[in-house]
Design goal:
With 459 residues, this protein is an all-beta fold. It contains 1 helix and 33 strands. It folds into 3 domains: 243 residues, Immunoglobulins (Immunoglobulin-like), CATH 2.60.40; 112 residues, Immunoglobulins (Immunoglobulin-like, Sandwich); 81 residues, Immunoglobulin-like (Sandwich). It has an 8-stranded antiparallel β-barrel.
């Protein structure tokens, strides 16, 4: 239902019990010059009642108005958790900063890192600078929160905020908030350390942590959006992660990615170079250490999924492994200085709806295809590490189609790997060399010219 925003204060606010909620977030999405879609997403345990509507409020120019959003979707995301999406439509005619707030009572008393958690509200919001003359949507977190982990598991999780307008984003760790946005006091050790401290990367939003104690811990992440150096919006996610022992009875260990150690890095972040109108292929694989009856999933979410020519990732499970190829051909319109951010997700799902998940944040830099420029061999072919012990990464920029094949030969002339290429492409080839004999090998590119590069395998 469309709502016209008016500067009135309702005196009968809704009050809901939030003790079953494991996470919440709010965002605003541009529809047209006057209409905004409000999106409220909640994660609740299976014991909680599913409401057909939820309350929210809109603050602007010193006034507050209360509204309700209606249930749109309800899906299971594993670990006895439901993801609920609520929608509403607002008319925002005035040029002003609007703050859309979800603020309900009360949090679960088992939360270990909040002082007197059961007396605190769950508060989260989205804030947006509205101007009918310009298009502006909030950055919206896309990735489901990590709900449950084991003690001493490595937590690498990216909430993956996407801004439909392509604005610049910056991420922050913030204290969870209670009623009216008041920062909630936290215990002295907010997150038990032992391995990595709880950390949010400011440029990617990736959370890293190795928990060493059981318990349920609340955290909040905020993302700000900037346009031409001016902050024009913010979104915040509040979530709860439970650290447990023996809680995954059908999963003795978690999903592991294979073939990532040799991926190229820029400023200590995985980053691949792509070229406009040139197909890019990246082979991916992962799995669990032993065969069981669980299903494995491999997927990639991120910036490119918002374009008409979306990337594809088709994965196939074989026993306790899963493999797939990520393919994307970006267009000239998608060339930009800022890399596209993606989150690679590997999941193990049991018949009893338990789920374990591993993630990696990947960056894809889309470059303009050089016109009439021949790349040097050093630019066309990159190999690392050299020497290699277990994995060898080969990246090839064949955007002009000058090469027809790539092969790896031993010093005795044995073909260790070969691929025939047709047309222009960019390749990221990862080879498992753990079983290769120590010694010298040669990577050979054939086509309009031949490039040969010596490498060493050393165990």
């Amino acid at each position: 239902m469309k709502k016209l925003f008016t500067f009135l204060l309702f005196l009968s606010p809704f009050c809901l019990k939030a003790s079953h909620e494991k996470g919440a977030q709010v965002s605003l999405r541009y529809i047209n010059t006057t209409d905004m879609e409000v999106r409220i997403k909640l994660w609740v345990d299976s014991n909680g009642l599913i409401n057909n509507s939820v309350p929210y409020s809109v603050q602007a120019s010193g006034a507050t108005t209360s509204y309700t959003a209606s249930l749109s979707t309800n899906v299971s995301v594993g670990n006895a958790t439901q993801e609920l999406s609520y929608l509403d439509t607002l008319q925002l005619n005035a040029t002003a900063t609007y703050k859309v707030v979800y603020d309900v009572c009360c949090r679960n008393g088992i939360i270990a890192n909040l002082t007197n958690a059961s007396a605190e509200n769950l508060y989260t919001y989205a804030e947006l600078m509205n101007n009918p003359a310009q298009v502006n949507s909030n950055p919206e977190f896309q990735n489901t929160p990590m709900i449950q982990m084991g003690v001493n598991d490595t937590m690498i999780h990216n909430p993956m905020a996407i801004d439909p307008d392509g604005d610049s984003l910056a991420y922050y760790w913030v204290n969870p908030q209670g009623a009216n946005g008041t920062s909630i006091p936290m215990t002295f050790v907010a997150y038990p350390n032992g391995g990595w401290p709880f950390w949010v990367d400011s440029t990617t939003g990736e959370i890293t942590w190795i928990p060493t104690m059981t318990g349920s811990y609340a955290y909040a992440v905020r993302v700000d959006e900037y346009r031409n150096g001016v902050k024009i919006g913010s979104s915040q996610r509040d979530a709860l992660v439970t650290i447990c022992v023996g809680c995954k009875t059908t999963m003795v260990s978690g999903f592991e990615f294979y073939n990532t150690a040799a991926w190229p890095k820029v400023n200590n972040k995985y980053q691949f170079d792509l070229y406009a109108n040139t197909p890019f292929n990246l082979n991916l694989s992962g799995g669990v250490p032993m065969t069981n009856n669980n299903n494995l999933a491999l997927k990639m979410i991120g910036d490119p999924n918002w374009f008409a020519n979306q990337p594809t990732l088709n994965a196939t499970q074989t026993s306790n492994n899963i493999t797939g190829t990520y393919t994307w051909t970006p267009t000239t319109a998608q060339v930009r200085n800022r890399p596209y951010m993606n989150v690679l997700i590997g999941q193990e799902n049991s018949a009893s709806n338990e789920r374990k998940q591993s993630e990696r944040t990947l960056l894809f830099k889309v470059n303009q295809q050089p016109s009439g420029v021949t790349l040097t061999p050093e630019q066309s072919l990159k190999i690392y590490p050299n020497p290699a012990a277990s994995e060898l990464m080969i990246t090839l920029d064949n955007h002009q189609g000058e090469y027809t094949s790539i092969a790896v030969y031993s010093s005795l002339g044995q073909t260790m790997y070969k691929k025939i290429m047709q047309g222009s492409s960019s390749e990221a080839i990862l080879l498992n060399v753990a079983d290769w004999a120590s010694g010298s090998y040669f990577v050979v590119l054939n086509g309009q010219q031949t490039i040969s590069r010596s490498i060493t395998v050393k165990h």
